[in-house]
Amino acid sequence: xxxxxDLRAGGASLRPTAHDTSVLDNxxxxxxxxxxxxxxxxxxxxxxxxxxxxxxxxxADPRDPAAWADLHTLVGPGTTVRIKPVEAVPDGWEIVGxxxxxxxxxxxxxxxxxxxxxxxxxxxVPEILDLVARTxxxxxxxxxxxxxxxxxIRDRGRLIALTGERLRPPGWTEISAVCTDPAYRGRGLAxxxxxxxxxxxxxxxxxxxxxxxxNNTRAIRLYESIGFTLRRRSPVxxxxxxxxxxxxTVL
Length: 251
Description:
There is one protein chain. By secondary structure, this protein is α+β, with helices and mostly antiparallel strands. Helices cover 21% and strands 28% of the residues. The strands form two sheets. It has an eight-stranded mixed beta sheet with strand order 4-11-5-10-9-8-7-6, with helices on both faces.
């Protein structure tokens, strides 16, 4: 059954999609409760990725006090965690930072392989971390590569561009870590990698989507120009659990 995409940010109706878009409203939870369940650290209605895979926690229902109680049990007292989409926290929890993100979905992307792209693996992680540190496309940690397929482009052996897969809610796969070495920008490398990653996503029956910071207008314009459409805006919060911890870990 097809379902029309709901543009939370306003705008024209989009072409139908074969997949339920409602799972994208709480994409981290949908992934941890679904295709990424093998990676989930979970207590009841709260879950998180290991802190060296992806630094986010999630709730089955952010309006449910029991889910917040489960999250407190999961992370412990006085612990800072990243979570989305959450607009308010229960008494005792503290918002210590955050921002606004946007979610875009594939509505007209031309997906195709990139012959020059190579699949990256665990041995490539040091190079990936170096490129990510210099380009800051978003979080990439020591085991993030376990979330899906990552493709790169090399020049004389040196990694100069990267794109891969992150969240996997049922029926969808997030394209993430889109970055290019500053010396190689303007050559369309990121676009070719996005198209190639999207081609593999579609081949297994999923639909691509992605996230970006709301103030990253340059990236948003690029994604819209190649066939993604803005679906919604939502807060990304850094919250601290009630109680006192000697470590105050950020997960």
